[in-house]
Amino acid sequence: MFSKKTLIAVGLVALIAANIIALSVNNKRNFPSNGTGRIVIFFVAPFQDLFTRSIRFAGDVWNHYFFLASAAKENDRLKKALTHAFEQNNKYKEIELANSRLRNLLNFKETVSQTLLAAEVVGKDPSSWFKSIIIDRGTDDGIKKGFPVVVSEGIVGQVIDVSSNYSKVLLIIDKNSAVDALVQRTRARGIIKGDLADRCHFKYVLRKNDIKVGDTVISSGLDGVYPKGFRIGQVSGVARFNSGIFQEVSVIPYVDFEKLEEVLVVLNPPKHDFGIK
Known about the structure:
single chain; about 280 residues; alpha+beta; Thrombin, subunit H; 6-stranded antiparallel barrel; 2 helices; 12 strands; about 25% strand; elongated
């Protein structure tokens, strides 16, 4: 009915059980050790050792699992705290940079005689054919079409469209822009025109006039838009030809138009006051 292997296995288990019971009885009666006890220990001890090691191993695994779970939770908490700290630090840096820019604008306002209104750049023309920005000031703030826009580095452009709370500013690097200008060193006069490369050309400058690379170009105040003396850019190239009455002059603007965030709008037209303190 049963195979030999099954009978042997059952007999072995029964023998081990009997030996365990005998060992327990011997221990309770405090009998001196004899041959039977040694035989019992020989067979039972390895199983007891294996059982004890298994219990300890299971306990270690269980404790290790809880340790890892606790460590994972602590790690997540620390990551969140670190992310929050980075965000706060970034906010503080942005505030510090904004304060620095505003201080520069405030210091610049104190050096000019015009009435200036600070505005924030809230949009840019996505087209590559037009160079303009949108600022968060409009007619409710006293802004009108044609008002010049500047920063401490130099001229930005002029207002070409205005609503109650916003205004569109045409930058001097736009091909449709024009600023009556002169070279600060020699007073040579011409017209600053924009191009598609975010640079300017100094047009209609007489060939006889002395212009050198590195000269500063400023507004002349004669166009009725920009006050006199505001910086425009630096001469980067001069070309004189054998024929013609004009020379070709290229100018790099002082204003970095890619980084404009705050600007100043000149509220009083240059017809009233062209001077700089």
